[in-house]
Each structure stands twice: as structure tokens, then as C-alpha cells.
């Protein structure tokens, strides 16, 4: 079966599926229980290539230089786009924690874990490896 046949036999709905991962959050456990010593599950998912590009673009100044002043802002955008559970756009959660935006809620719930969670969402969303076959048939990972 050639590649065209395989694609035609596949389900188009598969193109919309996103990779997911469950992380263990000590910070969220502390938020819920008022004490340390455990973890709470946080479900993240892959962000679309368009959204990932938009978030990464926040870090680039008009002159092409890296804008590190926006790094926390970008990380919060990664969380809003990629955290599935708890749902950061839930109106009840926003009201309960006195937050105006999902970014505010992410900052309040995850504080010192923001960078770690953002990096995990990036790993799901941006592949830095692709297998390339050389002419001799040898597979090389980039």
C-alpha cells in the first residue's frame, strides 16, 4: 500500500486530534489542600501550529531581537492554550479566585510551576525531530 492509499484509508478526524499528557502539580495540590506533600493531576494538550507560532512571535521585537521582557507573558499564553484540566477559562473558577482573565488564573494557580508546564506544552506542540532518510536508506534524526 502506497502513501496515498494509506492516507485515503485513514480517518480525516485524526487530523484534529491533539497529543495530551498528565502532569503532577505540587502547587495545585497545595492550592486545593492548603498543605504540601502531594500532587494533583494537570492535563495538558498540544497547541496548534498557528497558536504556537503566535505565542513564539510575542518574544520577537520589531527589530528581530529577542524580547525577554515578554517571556512570562508568553509562558502564560502557553498555559491558557494548552492546559485542559483544570479549564482556565471556566467562569466559576475565574470568579472564585477573583481573576479577570484565564492568564490571571494560570498565574495564581501555578506560580512557580508556570515555566515547567509551559515547556511541557511546547514539547507536545513543537517537534524538533524529524526522521530524514538519506539516499543510501540510512535514517537520520534532526
Please give a handful of descriptors for the protein shown.
single chain, about 140 residues, alpha+beta, rbstp2171, three-stranded antiparallel sheet, two-stranded antiparallel ribbon, 7 helices, globular
Describe this structure in words.
- It contains seven helices and five strands.
- By secondary structure, the protein is of the alpha+beta class.
- The protein has a single domain, classed as rbstp2171 (2-Layer Sandwich).
- A three-stranded antiparallel β-sheet has the order 1-2-3. The protein has a two-stranded antiparallel ribbon with strand order 4-5.
- Strand 4 and strand 5 (139-141) form a beta hairpin.
- The longest helix has 12 residues, at 71-82.
- The chain is globular.
- The protein starts with a helix and ends with a strand.
- The mean pLDDT is 87.
Let me know the average pLDDT.
Answer: 87
Number of beta-strand segments: 5
Please trace the helix and strand order, writing H or E for each element. Answer: HEHEHHEHHHEE
Query: Total domains, how many?
Result: 1
Low-confidence stretches: none
CATH class: Alpha Beta
Work out the helicity level: 40-55%
State which percent range the strand residues make up. Answer: 5-15%
In short:
Strand 4 and strand 5 form a beta hairpin. 44% of the residues lie in helices and 15% in strands.
Amino acid at each position: 500500500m502506497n502513501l496515498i492509499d494509506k492516507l485515503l484509508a485513514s480517518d480525516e478526524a485524526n487530523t484534529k486530534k491533539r497529543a495530551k499528557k498528565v502532569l503532577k502539580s505540587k502547587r495545585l495540590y497545595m492550592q486545593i489542600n492548603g498543605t504540601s506533600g502531594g500532587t494533583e493531576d494537570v492535563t495538558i494538550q498540544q497547541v496548534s501550529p498557528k497558536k504556537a507560532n503566535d505565542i513564539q512571535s510575542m518574544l520577537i521585537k520589531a527589530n528581530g531581537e529577542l524580547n525577554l521582557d515578554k517571556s512570562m507573558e508568553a509562558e502564560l499564553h502557553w498555559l491558557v492554550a494548552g492546559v485542559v484540566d483544570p479549564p482556565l477559562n471556566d467562569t466559576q473558577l475565574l470568579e472564585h479566585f477573583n481573576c479577570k482573565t484565564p492568564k490571571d488564573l494560570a498565574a495564581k494557580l501555578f506560580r512557580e510551576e508556570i515555566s515547567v508546564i509551559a515547556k511541557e506544552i511546547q514539547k507536545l506542540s513543537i517537534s524538533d525531530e524529524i526522521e530524514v532518510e538519506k539516499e543510501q536508506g540510512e535514517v537520520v534524526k534532526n
